[in-house]
Amino acid sequence: MLDADFFRRWLTAAAAAVDRAADRLTELDSPIGDADHGSNLRRGFTAVVAALEKEAPDTPGAVLTLAGRQLISTVGGASGPLYGTLLRRTGKALGDAAEVDEARFAEALRAGVDAVAALGGAAPGDKTMLDALVPALDALGAPDDSSGDTVGGAFGAARDAALQGALATTPLQARKGRASYLGERSIGHQDPGATSSALLFEALAETASGDASEGSRD
Fold first, then answer.
1. Domain, as residue range, for 148
2. In a domain, 184, yes or no
3. CATH classification of the domain holding 184
4. Which long-range contacts (CB under 8 A, 24 or more apart) does 19-27 make?
5. pLDDT digits (tens, 9 = 90+) for 125-179
6. Structurally, how many domains does the chain consist of?
7. Is residue 218 part of a domain?
8. What angle do CA 138, 140, 141 make, to 5 degrees?
9. Are the C-beta atoms of residues 109 and 94 closer than 8 Å to each other?
10. Is residue 158 part of a domain?
11. pTM of this prediction?
12. How many angstroms separate the CA atoms of 186 and 169, rounded?
């Protein structure tokens, strides 16, 4: 079961991953965007960690809802509303439960991803963050045949699917967002939003891996 502490640790790990990759994200954003994706997300997730330390929400839903609000209020451009909507809507879908299982988390995350798609008017294949989010979500919700190994199963599969989805945006022509203004010139560039979305699932697998390691020592 996943409790509030799990989600706080996930977002802290995500903030660290964004911090490490910020320069790379900005590099990816430079030819097809405003060259600020990395710096914007670094600022936003730093603010999320600070808010979680200050307020210490005690349910998974409250953790994600607070994080989403913080991103919306802190991050400029499209990234803040999109990532903020993803986390806030996921948090609201989780409700007030003190703990949730992986299936309920996957169901709530689908509500978050659907809200992102509605907000941006995008679909998989449009060269956006959805090209990482949707494959990861599908992997997260798939039956786990890994004999109880969460990291090797659902969370690990979601991480791998998100990464592959991000890499697969390179040959696509952008149809939504700032990059769509470039038309065919957007081809050949990996989408920064899909790349940063993959970082969330990398952090999720890392967090679950830490829990599995702790459990094996108990």
1. 2-213
2. yes
3. 1.25.40.340
4. 19/45, 19/46, 21/195, 21/196, 21/199, 24/195, 25/192, 25/195, 25/196, 26/192
5. 999 999 999 999 999 977 555 444 444 489 999 999 999 999 999 999 999 988 9
6. 1
7. no
8. 65
9. no
10. yes
11. 0.91
12. 10
